[in-house]
Amino acid sequence: MIIAIDGPAGSGKSTIAREVATRFGFSKLDTGAMYRSVALSALQRGISLEDASATAQLARDIRITFGTENHGNVSVFVDGIDVSDAIRTPEVDRNVSAAAANPGVRAAMLDPQRRFAEGHDVVAEGRDIGTVVFPEAELKVFLTADPRERARRRVMQRHEGSEVDASVIEAEIEQTLADIERRDALDSKRETAPLTCADDAVRIDSTSHTIDEIVSMIEHLIAERR
Ligand code: C5P
């Protein structure tokens, strides 16, 4: 069975995909990590993301692999080097949409993404899973949330367990909101495989729901389709 979870930045796709994968014993495929790996590799090698053919060649050349699951967290490797933290920096956040808008990069990612699902149950998260990567997925979820709430969750996640001044939190929420909206606009407006809700996807707005509530909704949807 394939479950596709698409949606904008910070809508909770990773958390929900991780919970669903753990609960049902599915493998989790984080396709965003793959585009992040391409952007990171280009930045590290001084390849301009505006150079479409060089970036596409890079995407074909590097080998992106995933480590074994550890409590639902999966490490990401580029040519054997662990990049799990390096792909989550603000610099990669700012550059990843340019890499992902490149049709040559997307073409290079498609095959490994589809191969990942061969022979086992997968929950895959991204922007074009239900529309392009796995249009035949048995369950498609389009996860959204109010942009300010998405920004707030991101910031609270970043400071989990530490005491931070409310004014600092507010300023970070404003900055994160601007970043999220910029990335969503780039991802939605690109020509190849834009972020969009598949016709047959179930839309879930997570703004006023807990993670457990959403996982329960997905649990029911899975049961209906089995
Ligand atoms: O999901 P995450 O925020 O890590 O994705 C990072 C970026 O990768 C997105 O903003 C988007 O530009 C790109 N992406 C994509 N298609 C996917 C997954 C991610 O274009 N299926």
Question: How would you describe this protein?
Answer:
This protein has 226 residues and is an alpha/beta fold. The protein folds into two domains: 130 residues, 3-Layer(aba) Sandwich (Rossmann fold), CATH 3.40.50.300; 94 residues, 3-Layer(aba) Sandwich (Rossmann fold), CATH 3.40.50. A five-stranded parallel sheet has the order 2-6-1-7-8. A three-stranded antiparallel sheet has the order 3-4-5. The protein is globular, with a radius of gyration of 17 Å. It starts with a strand and ends with a helix. The protein binds cytidine-5'-monophosphate (C5P). Belongs to the cytidylate kinase family. Type 1 subfamily. InterPro entries: Cytidylate_kin (IPR003136), Cytidylate_kinase_dom (IPR011994), P-loop_NTPase (IPR027417). It is an enzyme of class 2 (transferase). Its main location: cytoplasm. One of its GO terms (molecular function) is ATP binding.
